[in-house]
Amino acid sequence: MKKNSNLPKKTNFRLQGTDGIRSDARLATPDERKEPLKVFLEQKIITPEFMELYTYAWVKSIVSKKPKVKNPAIVVGWDPRDKDAKFSEAVIKGIRKAGANAISLGIVPTPLIPIYLLHCQAQGGIMITASHNPKDQNGIKLFSSYRGMKPLPQNDIELSQSVYSLNFQEISKIKLQGQKVDHRNQALKLFSKFCLDPKNSWAERISFRDIILVVDCANGSLSGIAAEIFKEAGFGEIFEVNAKLDGDVNLNSGVADLEGYSLITSSMIRDEIGIFSKHSAILAMFELGRKNTKQTMDGKTKISGAVFDADGDRFFRLEYQPLKDAVIVQSGDDTSWLQAHFLMKRKSNRFKGSQIINTVESDLNSFNDLQEQGFKTQVAPVGDKWILSRSTISDLKSRLDYIGENWKTTSEKTSNKFEQTKKQLEEFENSGVSEIEQLEKLEKSVDELISSQKIDVNEVYRPDAHETFAIGAEVTGHVITKGHIPGKSDESIPIYCGNGVKNALNTFVASKHIGLTLRAWYNRMENPFKPGYKQTNYAYYVDKNLFFKSSKVWQQVKTLVESTVKELGWDCTQTEFSEDHDMLYLNLSVISPTGKLDQASIFIRNSGTENKIGVNIRGAKRLKKHLGLLGETITRQLMSEMKDSNNEFCKMEWETINNLYGQKIPEEEIMVAPDKRSRLLTEMKKQLFIELTGRGYGLTQRGKWYVEKHTK
Fold first, then answer.
1. Regions in the chain scoring below 50 on pLDDT
2. Residue 374: other Cβ atoms inside 10 A
3. 594, 609 in Cβ contact below 8 A?
4. What is the pLDDT of residue 334?
5. Which residues contact 77 (CB under 8 A, 6 or more apart)?
6. Cα-based distances in Å from 136 to 139, 162, 543, 675, 695
7. 314 DSSP 8-state letter
8. What is the separation of C-alpha 135 from the centre of its chain, rounded to a whole number of angstroms?
9. How many Cβ atoms are within 10 Å of 616's Cβ, its own excluded?
């Protein structure tokens, strides 16, 4: 095929972010249909044609690498934001044109894709979603046939180069080859069976009849699915909210609105000015809590909430606190702590010394607490793909250790292979993994060693065997524990993936086993561990190309932090993550007046899923004042240096801030197109530019600073 002339010179160029492709999405104009890649690169717009091109490139590579596979199959599903099915139809066309069969599941949660592809032994999986992003965005998540893993950096680079090498006008003329097969009913039955299996839900002999449950599906993939599973699990009453399949995903709903909050008070739901006055799940929690005050105060009933994102792989828990008339919000840090506590209390022999892998966004105090419980902790970059790759390494290490403990042969060839495999595994532990195939090849070597030693595989995987990996967690709501899928025969296939429903069930089971008085139980729910200081600031609508390792802005921020903490008498060191070279991660430490070592971290990174950059501050609460000021200084610098004045939303943001200077304006009078107003205001609130008052929206101190700074 004729190649594109704009092939990038950088060999490590990637089209993908943290988790696949994600951006604004719309239908193409007639001219844009000819060059969808150009539209994506220059306008950051995903069109159906781009989806078809991207899918074709990926599936074609799978088909070419597995020529002996007859009727290769790709499992595909989507969330409900694509009301007219234009993007899902484009993806299915790309699959079929590349010579594979499209196993269509329809609107389903993301975790069902890897679950079903491993169950039916498909060659790959695709989820069409932009996850927690606004409804006017869309994207693609890819899943490998190897453990259902997501592509790693080298896989992304190779796919990006493949996309560049293709000419869409030629692809558009290719006739459909593979078939489209509907497996929706079979897949949904498997998902329900998977989630309710006691090996996965941990809910054997557990009653949930005392829980009134509010289920918030963010108008997304779990609408009508999660509530049925919770009903079958035995919850007392279930109230499903935000379960419309009308495309309004994540609108006044879902986990993204809850990020950064640990307790929602009654003032936050006040008509019109309360930040959660339009959030149906929060309103339902207060209504049900107040209606059942006597039962909750007696301990006979609990009012709980399960909140998901649009594609169903993230989960936050809500709990009505009758003693405060407030709603507790549990993030991924909290729910994973509860699950870890449960595993260690119930199965300490299996989990003592096992790994808990959290990303850098987690509260530093949670690491200390988990270590005291007997776990080993590990920090990974942002993105559940890194948890998945590290959990695989941990699993393979466990198997290799078992082989070493039960070594029988003295064959020099086999001994050399054992040492080579061990060395390779150590390299992956220290330096990370760049492509899925490296792990797949390593696992094959481990399996061959098991066979050569005539070791019983069932003994390696016996139910009471010590686990090297316990939990992987992101504060944003991805919590990963081992799952078990029924294979085509009777074998059980292990799987690790973010699954909101499984996470929810595990969390409710874990909290059932905390034997405390009522007041102490609610205190534990509010603070499972003693929290440290945690703050995240965002700058939206930025030119992310300005921030990368050793760039001008990157170096400015590094110098700013180092000079500031030096004046405070703190120590500062830098940590580099092989998986995310461009993240600036700085460790801070200082001796407290009592002689205790107080620690903190500041890390700055471009979001891989949205057009924003984040300033993340974590540390001891004693350091809150200095950390908060430092975080604000960094954020303002990034806003000054990186805002993209050519971005459509950046232009609307600037006009809105200027109009609000010195006055309050009701939402309906803000001069922004109605279909874009909700997203703009949400993202301006997340940047702390504006706040809602009784007279409408007004500027915060940061908003006033932004106007004054840029109108001098």
1. 1-5, 7, 9-10
2. 13
3. no
4. 97
5. 104, 105, 106, 107, 108, 109, 110, 112, 113, 126, 127, 128, 187, 221
6. 11, 27, 20, 9, 29
7. -
8. 17
9. 21
